[in-house]
Write a structure and sequence with these properties.
The structure is a homodimer of 199-residue chains. Chain A is 72% helix and 0% strand. Chain A has helices spanning 20-42, 45-52, 56-62, 66-95, 99-113, 115-127, 132-153, 157-175, 184-189. In chain A, helix 4 (66-95) packs across helix 6 (115-127) and helix 6 (115-127) crosses helix 8. The structure holds a DNA duplex (30 and 30 nucleotides).
Chain lengths: 199, 199
DNA sequence: TCAAGGTGTGAGTATGCACTCACTCACTTC
DNA sequence: GAAGTGAGTGAGTGCATACTCACACCTTGA
């Protein structure tokens, strides 16, 4: 049960092969921007495999279908959001700030800086219409986020609805870069300071 | 100048060919559900042409690229929304009802009954990330809808923002059929009666 | 009646895709 | 060291796709 080789140099890992779990992580990391940019159908698995540094054949061993890979990417983007919200809520608690507002700000920052998370969400929403696996993943996503928001903000269902609605608007406005448009509609729909969605 | 064959049955129109404009309309009608279901990349132009009752070759004469066709479909879905809102506002005016509320209800009905309009919007939003033509079409769409809503409801920018945010939430919840889910998050996020978004 | 131009197509081309198969090599166990 | 298992791949297969081209037919105007 003891590792046999204390003899080999300890600076290098004795193992040259990666574990399947490491590869899976690498694939998800590589897949995220590709799905974000091109959407489900136009994202080539060859490109994802290349980005992960493995062969396409091995990609399909680890994720038997492209759809399973897509769902895993949706779940990963959900995890990113959960992390973001949790950190923001922790910070709000520590500094005595309004958690609803802090989580909202953190979300705006997240989708503004990490467009992959945003675009994966949008593609997944659109695919939900006719791809049951994506629909399920999106429902799970909303379930988790709603539970987290309810717990950390203590808001009423009505307040939470408003807060989610604001999030959906941020998504779309960010996707079309409305903040770069100098027109009344764009100014009105991208004004998230001193916001009605927060408390 | 007289059609040469008064001998043929007069119940048939003398013209056997359609005009290009009629064909264009037929193509858009056929393209809408295909793009809605499959998204931009996975929607085959062969299937669209077949649905429109013409050859694929002629489709490409009328819409030189698939992208132009996609943009035209986005614009058509915008027109549907404009019609819906206009009718609802007219009705509200005629019957002394609140236009904001009536337009909101009409929108919910539209996306609930005509999923094509909804899904085309969602696909277009997702494509906006990396397809400038789709982004432009979506911006135009928001510009037109915002102008209409502002004129017909007289709402403040803040009120209009709330109203649009509610619309974005309706979109997503409808896409994932959240109203069929019996869980707290789904009940809260699909409760659009007596709504905070309406005045 | 005939030319001009619009309507319309069959049959491609070149490319890209998800997924498979047969196979090699690294590592562990006994 | 032998035997088993998991990591990893080169080289496909079969099919679908956007777009093209040469060509035919219908309609109109003079």
């Amino acid at each position: 049960m003891v590792p046999p080789a204390a003899t080999s140099t300890p600076t290098k890992p004795s193992r040259t092969l990666s574990t399947a779990e490491e590869r899976r992580e690498a694939i998800l990391t590589a897949a995220m921007p590709v799905f974000a940019e091109k959407g489900y159908h136009a994202a080539p698995t060859t490109e994802i495999a290349k980005g992960a540094g493995i062969s396409q054949a091995y990609l399909f061993r680890l994720f038997p279908t492209k759809e399973e890979l897509f769902v895993a990417v949706i779940e990963r983007s959900r995890e990113r959001m959960i992390e973001t919200f949790t950190e923001a809520a922790d910070r709000a608690d520590a500094e005595g700030l309004d958690p609803t507002e802090q989580m909202g700000i953190a979300y705006g920052d997240l989708v503004g800086s990490d467009r992959d998370v945003l675009l994966v969400q949008l593609h997944a929403q659109a695919m939900s219409g006719f791809m049951p696996a994506a629909r399920k993943a999106m429902r799970d996503c909303f379930a988790a986020l709603y539970a987290l928001a309810a717990e950390r903000t203590g808001g009423s269902p009505e307040e939470l609805k408003l807060w989610f609605a604001g999030g959906m608007l941020i998504n779309v406005m960010t996707a079309i870069n409305a903040e770069q448009v100098d027109q009344p509609w764009a100014r009105a729909l991208t004004d998230f300071d001193g916001d009605c969605f927060n408390g």
